[in-house]
Amino acid sequence: MRTELKLAVLAAAVTLAACGKKEEAATPVSPAAAPAADQLVVKIGHVGATSGQVAHLGKDNENGARLAVEELNAAGIKIGDKSAKFELLAEDDAADPKQATAAAQKLVDAKVNGVIGHLTSGTTLPASQVYNGAGIPQITPSSTNPKITRQGYAGAFRLVADDTQQGGALGRYSVETLKAKTVAVIDDRTAYGQGLADEFAKAAAAAGAQVVGHEFTNDKATDFKAILTTIKAKQPDVIFFGGMDSAGGPMLRQMKQLGIKAKLVGGDGLCTGEMIKLSAEALGNDQVYCVEAGGVDGAEVNDNEKFRTAFKARYQADVQAYAAYAYDGVKLLAQAMQAAGSAEPAKYLPELKKIQYQGASGKVEFDEQGGRKNAALTLYTFRNGARAQLAIIR
Where are the beta strands (DSSP E) in 72-196? Predict the structure, then answer.
């Protein structure tokens, strides 16, 4: 028995060794294919919240950027004497500042040529420090905190109106058009929500309204009955919410449950298609007023509609909010690179600063701080379960 066992073990070992040699021979290691000598690979980073409560907005932005990359590659553009191949490196920051800086560093390490993002002000602000340190231009398609373009960073740009413009317009509109004599304010304590709410309160007070209360929540909350009960006792004509649709929808439902008759007013975070779903039966006609940090009119409408049609054909979904700005951001980077004949950030940055571009979000030019010149605002309400445009404000 021992002899047979030894022979069996020896035979198994020989078989295994032979199999190992065959497997090694069958899978040779090939070197990665290098780009052609006349081809330039251009890496564009995109960061947004593609998980969490505002994932629908982060994915909206990412899809806009991806559509631009696909169109650029289909067009076969050249940068200098080389054919450019654009690649989108997409990261998720979950609307969390710590994840945002980690995502930013990952893109820096990947040696991206430019960045579109981030979605929210609370993530854009810390991430901008990382990009600035690496000398990589960053264009945010949706972050509105004024500090983003006031830090003295040469490569920081914004494609939408900031909180000063949004909050000011909504404060004045609430008093002058909605005839509010008293207003209450709620904010979610984020860089976006707090900044917007503060600007609204200042503008409403300057226009003659009394601010009867300022309550606070957070961007993960869904139960607002305690603060709404406090506000109800003060009987405001308008409640302003500085925050996103993920909280604004449940807040409106709870306002209805508590019998609060005040209008709900908010910034671009409430001006989304998802707000309609989240508000459900509470979204009565002319109950909610909001402003989108952008807008097109006149001849610009055609380009915007063309983009929206292409977006829906590609993704079988309507634009949520900021996709056109992410799309334009990619095209802006490409145009600046073409003008400079280089995708190196230091070489194309001067061209980006002085750029004139006509895109899906209208005409784009930047001021000295990197903000968009003559940024438009679009005022909306909701009627019959859909957004209804009221006015373009510049």
Answer: 78-79, 82-92, 114-117, 138-140, 156-158, 182-187
In this predicted structure, what is the pLDDT of residue 297?
84
From its phi and psi, is residue 301 left (phi > 0), alpha (psi between -120 and 50) or beta? alpha
Q: CATH topology of 39-160+297-373 equal to that of 164-292?
A: yes
Note whether 196 and 167 are within 8 A (CB).
yes
Say whether pLDDT at 2 is over 50: no
pLDDT at position 280, please?
87
Longest C-alpha distance within the chain, in Å? 103
**Least confident interval from 21-25, 54-58, 377-381:** 21-25
What residues does each domain of the chain span?
A: 39-160+297-373, 164-292
The CATH class that applies to domain 164-292 reads: alpha beta
Q: Is 4 helix (H, G, I), strand (E, B) or coil?
A: helix
* The overall pTM is greater than 0.90: no
Residue with tokens 């002000």: 121
| 39-160+297-373: in CATH 3.40.50.720 | no
Cα–Cα nearest to 205, from 158, 258, 167: 167
Of the CA atoms within 13 Å of residue 393, those in its CB half-sphere come to 20
